[in-house]
Specification:
Structural class: alpha+beta
CATH architecture of one domain: 3-Layer(aba) Sandwich
Radius of gyration: 34 Å
Largest sheet: 6 strands, mixed
Helix content: 40-55%
Shape: extended
């Protein structure tokens, strides 16, 4: 009877399945693919198995069954082409005992497939002699879990020490031949990164930058790495080498690594079985500054992030104006929205979002694009001229203003902090008295529980606010106005005659628009500009207003 079954089985394929994960490599040559192949083929030859075919998954974890060779083998099982599956041991099939059990107890028997694990003495033809197989699977999974825990501990220690956790450096960097944990600049790719940032500052969006990269014939990061003999997990074809995706550009524009920093723990996995990487909240990142040479300077990086925060969207009516995302209502503080006609550019204007959404919530604060841009240009010209012609007075005024604002901020913050701390102490006393009254029977248990719950909730909120205030006060003390950087911009743009996205983003942080007024029969529109580096500043005798009949 066994002979007949053997004969029928031999008409089908005998699958010799090999698997080796990165972790298994640590065990030495015993688990190497070549050795597995040799062991399996010898066993097949010695035991009369013919029509053998080898299936190899090299570098795939046993905790997942999403492996190329295994997927191919599974498809052949479904087609009824497989008669026997032979593995070196149960762990080669997998280290997820539920999945392994499903295959050995259900899938293989239902498909009339003989399963053999040589080193474990498992042969499905023997029936009851395989009672220990489930326990073998459980121990294999325990090994995988233990190995994962140890690897994660090593990675955590490495990440906390400031060494980069990523396998490959970001585009623009290569590993230092003398120290694999140190990155050095790859000038060819770094120049492309600098150009991407420059284009963003100049007003280009990710889609436009991607098209420009393709127009100039730059290889995308994956193709560039492959062309220089560097490992990459991407399987793009040669035809995609010069195709840039919007997401690639966006990713490059937000990477702090280009500032010369190492950023660890940006992603995590829920479990060792789930290989999908999830994004950590930025508060969970660990940032180690100045670990390698920077490609992008801090000022340019910050400008790009502001641009990304208020990015200009492309709509059916065209690209949004250069000030999109930067204009706010001087009364309610909400953003001004763009309103425009498809064929009437002279009718382009901005209006308060609160006014549009909530009836009576605010006034319109309507201002035409051309008026706003003219006022802003006037403001930039006035400030840069004053800073250039009266540099010493400019520095003194900014420094005095900054110190005054800092003193007020610190004074107000300290006052609120002291009040919150005093209230927390008072609540402690109240709760203590309530506790004593409850013990003496003056306050019922129900009333005691209700009152203490309210007080404790208030106390928790105050403690959170105290922590926040301490953090804000520390930040205020560390904050300094970068007058020197603003003067550098002044020297860079000696004669600003028109607005560009680059000029706006470099000079301006925010613009506040006031409701238009009638003064002496004329409509007056006023704006308030918050400058990068120096905050609000209006040169003596200069006001930002527009009068129109």
């Amino acid at each position: 009877m066994n002979t007949n079954r053997q004969s029928k089985t031999n008409e089908k394929i005998t699958a010799l399945y090999c698997r080796l994960s990165r972790d298994d490599e640590l065990q030495g040559d015993s688990n190497s693919i070549l050795n597995q192949k040799a062991i399996l083929q010898k066993y097949a030859d010695d035991n009369g198995f013919t029509n053998t075919q080898c299936f190899v998954d090299d570098g795939y974890s046993g905790t997942t069954f999403d492996r190329p060779a295994w997927n191919r083998l599974s498809a052949m099982i479904d087609e009824g082409l497989i008669g026997t599956i032979i593995v070196k041991d149960m762990s080669r099939l997998g280290r997820d005992y539920l999945q392994v059990g499903m295959y050995t107890e259900m899938v293989f028997p239902n498909a009339d497939i003989r399963f053999i694990a040589i080193n474990n003495g498992v042969d499905s033809i023997n029936g009851t002699e395989n009672d220990m197989t489930p326990f073998i699977n459980i121990f294999n999974e325990f090994y995988a879990k233990d190995t994962s825990r140890k690897i994660r501990a090593v990675f955590k220690s490495k990440g906390q020490s400031g060494k980069p956790l990523c396998t490959n450096p970001p585009y623009g960097y290569i590993k230092d031949p003398e120290d694999k944990n140190h990155w050095i600049i790859d000038e060819e790719a770094a120049n492309v990164v600098r150009e991407i940032f420059h284009l963003c500052v100049s007003g280009y969006g990710p889609q436009q930058i991607a098209r420009e990269m393709m127009r100039r014939g730059y290889m995308n990061p994956t193709a560039y790495a492959r062309a220089h003999g560097r490992a990459t997990p991407d399987n793009r074809t040669v035809g995609d080498d010069y195709t840039w995706q919007n997401s690639t550009i966006s990713h490059i524009l937000t990477r702090m690594e280009y500032l010369g920093h190492t950023v660890n723990f940006k992603t995590y996995r829920k479990s060792y079985k789930n290989k999908k990487q999830l994004k950590n909240d930025p508060s969970q990142w660990q940032i180690f500054e100045n670990t390698h040479e920077a490609i992008i300077d801090r000022e340019t990086f910050d400008i790009v992030q502001r641009i990304r925060d208020g990015r200009r969207r492309v709509t059916p009516m065209g690209e949004m104006p250069i000030l999109s995302g930067m204009v706010f209502c001087a009364d309610c503080g909400k953003k001004l929205y763009q309103v425009r006609g498809r064929n009437l550019p002279q009718k382009e204007y901005m209006v308060c979002s609160t006014y549009r959404k909530i009836k009576g919530g605010c006034s319109s604060h309507q201002i035409r694009n051309e008026v706003l841009e003219r006022l802003l240009l006037d403001g930039i010209q006035a400030v840069t001229a004053y800073a250039r012609e009266h540099e010493a007075d400019f520095v003194e005024l900014i420094t005095q203003k900054s110190q005054t604002e800092l003193d007020k901020s610190l004074r107000d913050g300290k006052r609120e902090l002291e009040q919150a701390q005093a209230r927390i102490r008072k609540l402690d006393d109240i709760i203590q008295r309530l506790y004593e009254d409850n013990l003496e029977g003056k306050v019922s248990d129900e009333r005691f529980a209700r009152m203490t719950a309210n007080y404790e909730e208030e106390q928790k909120g105050l403690e959170s606010r105290v922590a926040e205030l301490k953090k804000l006060l520390a930040a205020e003390k560390d904050r300094s106005v970068n007058v020197d950087h603003f003067l550098t911009l002044v020297r860079k743009y000696t004669d600003v005659q028109e607005l560009t996205a680059e000029i706006v983003r470099e000079f301006v942080e925010k613009v506040y628009v006031y409701q238009a007024e009638r003064i002496d029969g004329q409509k007056v529109q006023r704006i308030r500009i918050v400058w990068n580096c120096i905050g609000e500043f209006t040169p003596p005798t200069v006001t930002n207003t527009e009068k129109s009949a």
